[in-house]
User: What shape does this take?
Amino acid sequence: MTKIAIQGIGGRMGQALCRLIEARSDCQVVAGVDLRANPAAQPPVYESLEAMSEQPDVLIDFSSPAATAKAVGWCAEHKVPCVICTTGLDETTERALVQLSQHVAVFKSANMSMGINLLIELARTAVQMLGEDYDIEIIEKHHHNKVDAPSGTALMIADEINDAANGAYHYVYDRHAVRQPRDKHEIGLHAVRGGSIVGEHEVLLCGPDEVISLGHSAASREVFANGAVNAAVFLAGKGPGLYSMKDMMRHE
Assistant: This one.
């Protein structure tokens, strides 16, 4: 039985995690962290990780960049593996997570959906097969409350494509000031914000007389929550290292 603590338990993703974990027999939520603390609740909810008396096997972080930065130090001090689902982290926190992974297991992905990670593998294969004759554009759509743009997932897709092409591409985020033909080494990234869109990502490979489209659409937040729970169970008992969805997909 994997004992899980959730930072951000009061948010929509935190509540989705609780619902999924309650239906499983291989893990349980032992504590949560949220600004609206309620230590008498079941599971107990604390205002900070430092106030938490329970010792979880894994911490799932679905919070904010500032809260994630604080969690790094706590996980290092208490030797607790962590699943980091928060996006928009600054370079300092990213470096701190890499350093943390030298001492405990760290699972990090900008998107916890199995489908998105399959999309990435398909995009990598397509780029390697098609080469530079196909222009690459990435379009992402999210709800109007999402702050970071482009999304962490869109950047992850672009980075993986660029890695598959040996770093041949640079990113263009806004074309309104560009008055020149498109460079074949561009990857265009476009963000749409509106309504209650959970998350949609599309990779367009535009070649001579044809367009190949690879897409993924999330119907609910449960798809991300389910991936995070699976990651937590996967991570429990793992040695130090920086793990990703690729590791979990290979394991399965």
Observations:
- The longest strand covers residues 199-207.
